[in-house]
Specification:
This protein has 16 helices and 17 strands. It has 430 residues and is an alpha/beta fold. Helix 4 runs parallel beside helix 5 and helix 5 runs parallel beside helix 6 (180-197). The longest helix has 18 residues, at 180-197. Bound molecules: guanine (GUN) and fe (iii) ion (FE).
Length: 430
């Protein structure tokens, strides 16, 4: 005997589903798409289509509906700058950049030589980031290859989309550095480790720490590797005034901090530069000409009292700007918190008349999603659209009728994340 339930089950395609929710989607710097009763048709890890729920359910009849009508769905957040081994140092040793690095961070990162420790710490790090709605992370590991492999393994287990690199360093007073050859050998080893994992969710990114830890020769080798393997590069630039003096004394043959990177071939459209607070007009035009990307780390800049990056000014120049939590100088892995810090920094600059423009929540949401995907040259993430990955975050908010209000609640709500799906698999649920 057939009953109605068995008939419905037999014609339901189990690998296809429609997600029903209120939808917020980045479009460009100014605008956000809002669909109050939206449907997203998915097949395993891929978005088939999305739109008004009624239209989508006509287009894809007899498909299981996952009803999240009381939640808002957004694409997953993309954190473009953070440090996994520094996680235990959140809130520790408040002070300026250089003593903070020497006294707290370099000794702490040394512990990443212990694989078991590195795996467990990375696992906790990824789980926390995912619980805040981050589905893609661009992260520094430590100097150690084995610890970085453990972090890669933890990344694969967590399901997060991960761009990771061992921190390359050949300069410095203590033992926390390697020879140039060792740095390059380690990079090549990690490139093949990731290739052999045959999993596309983890990618290698070249990670020279900054011009204070890298010789010109090491930076030139990094630039060669980037070209040979078509890789992204991440580093730090122009974060702190004492740091600027230190870099000038270390690299006297270059006109500026930015010039060290220009002269060694580090800059380009696949380069991510964290902080960028104290850039001269000449340095800014170098970044513009080379298509290099700026990563705004507002909470870190406040915590280490580094200064305030003028987002609105860089935006006027049409420089690409992503957002990074920069743990542990940044005190939280929450991208919502980081967006709020970016907005508040913009408010500070405006109030003190250092900027004549405020940046908007829409602008910062764009930086945390679609603009970040463009910076990573990854057209499968950053937006809800046909053919993209199913990287979804569900937020609990209290007024589902108005875009501005929803966005403000997501950013200022101190994390309302209820559920996170990455590559079609649920990775977090309250
Ligand atoms: N500059 C060089 N290394 C670091 C680091 O680990 N954190 C920050 N905020 N700046 C850096
Ligand atoms: Fe950093």
């Amino acid at each position: 005997m057939f009953n109605i339930c068995t008939i419905i089950q037999s014609i339901t395609k189990p690998n296809m589903q429609i997600i029903k929710a209120t939808l917020i989607n980045p479009v460009d710097k100014e605008s956000i798409e809002f669909i109050e009763h939206a449907g997203i048709a998915i097949s395993e890890d891929q978005i088939l289509d999305y739109g008004d729920f009624t239209d989508i359910s006509k287009q894809y009849p007899n498909i299981e509906v996952l009803d999240y009508s009381d939640l808002v769905v957004t694409p997953g957040f993309i954190d473009l700058h953070t440090h996994i081994p520094q996680y235990p140092a959140i809130g520790k040793g408040k002070g300026e950049l250089l003593p903070w690095l020497n006294n707290y961070i370099f000794p702490l990162e040394q512990k990443f030589s212990d694989n078991n420790y590195a795996f467990k710490l990375s696992e906790a790090f990824f789980m926390k980031a995912i619980s805040f709605g981050t589905t893609t992370l661009t992260a520094f590991s430590s100097l150690h290859n084995s610890g970085t492999k453990a972090a890669i393994d933890a990344g694969l287990k967590s399901g997060v989309n991960l761009y990771i690199g061992n921190t390359l360093m050949d300069l410095g007073e203590g033992s926390y550095k390697h020879s140039i050859d060792q740095n390059i050998e380690d990079s090549l080893d990690l490139i093949s480790y990731i290739q052999n994992s045959k999993n596309h969710s983890v990618k290698y990114i070249l990670t020279p720490r900054y011009a204070g830890s890298c010789s010109v020769d090491l930076l030139k080798e990094v630039s060669k590797l980037a070209k040979e393997y078509d890789l992204h590069i991440q580093t730090h630039l122009s974060e702190n005034l004492s740091e600027l003096e230190f870099i000038a004394s270390l690299h006297p043959n270059y006109k500026s901090y930015t010039d060290v990177y220009l002269g060694t071939g580090i800059l380009g459209s696949k380069t991510l530069l964290a902080h960028c607070i104290y850039l001269s007009d000449t340095e800014l035009s170098i970044l513009k000409q080379t298509g290099s990307n700026i990563i705004h780390c507002a909470s870190s800049n406040r915590y280490l009292m580094s200064g305030r990056m003028n987002f609105a000014k860089y935006d006027e120049m049409n420089l690409k700007i992503g957002i990074g939590t920069d743990v542990a100088a940044g005190y939280s892995l929450s991208m919502a918190n980081e967006m709020r810090e970016a907005l508040e920094t913009s408010g500070d600059l405006y109030y003190t008349k250092k900027s004549d423009q405020l940046i908007s929540p829409q602008r910062i949401f764009f930086s945390s999603t679609l603009e970040a995907a463009k910076i990573l040259n990854n057209n499968r993430i950053g937006q809800l659209a046909k053919g993209k990955q199913v990287d979804l975050v569900f937020h609990k908010v209290y007024d589902l009728n108005d875009t501005d209000s929803i966005l403000n609640q997501i950013i200022y709500g101190n994390s309302n994340v209820q559920k996170v799906i990455i590559n079609g698999i649920e990775r977090f649920s309250l």
